[in-house]
Amino acid sequence: MNRIGFLFGLTVSILLAQSDPYQAFLAYMNEPGGKIMEIEFSQEQYGERYESSGTFFYFGEKQYMFDAADQRISYNNGIITTINKSQKQVIHDQAVPGEVTIFDVLTGEGESIQTGEPIIEKGMFRIPFTLLEWEMKGVIRVVPVTGEPREVILSSGEDDEIRIRVSSSEPANGKSVTEIDLDTFEIIDLRE
Question: pTM of the predicted model, to two decimals?
Fold first, then answer.
């Protein structure tokens, strides 16, 4: 029993002694070449619940995409493109300056993110954070040492929560996103 206690204590000491878990998370996300993650996305707001699962492609803080069976949402240098696959519709829009999304948290974008003291919980680092400008709080759970994200939760109250669970993650290694033939899609441009 003494050895188990010693090994547990040693493991905890090593984990706590490592560099800032949030910085490890940012380093993981911003490795050259990008990341591809399989995620489950859920949002609960005003008693309504929306769930989706798909692939999150991260190519840098200004370029990422979420691709699901029914839609594709991409962000490229401030331009948001939403492709509704079932209704054959494409909407181009411009990001609102200062607006923060759950994907910004996952990619480490935004200077208004203030992190709290990380703790070890169920073998993961649990990093609390606050989005200062939006009065929203959340948690990022990452794998110790690597910083690989496993879950991001963002909430602004009891009835408003966004949750991303990461089931797998791998380097993008030059992989590209499958093109969608948009010839028969209605195009709506909301950019000013």
Answer: 0.80
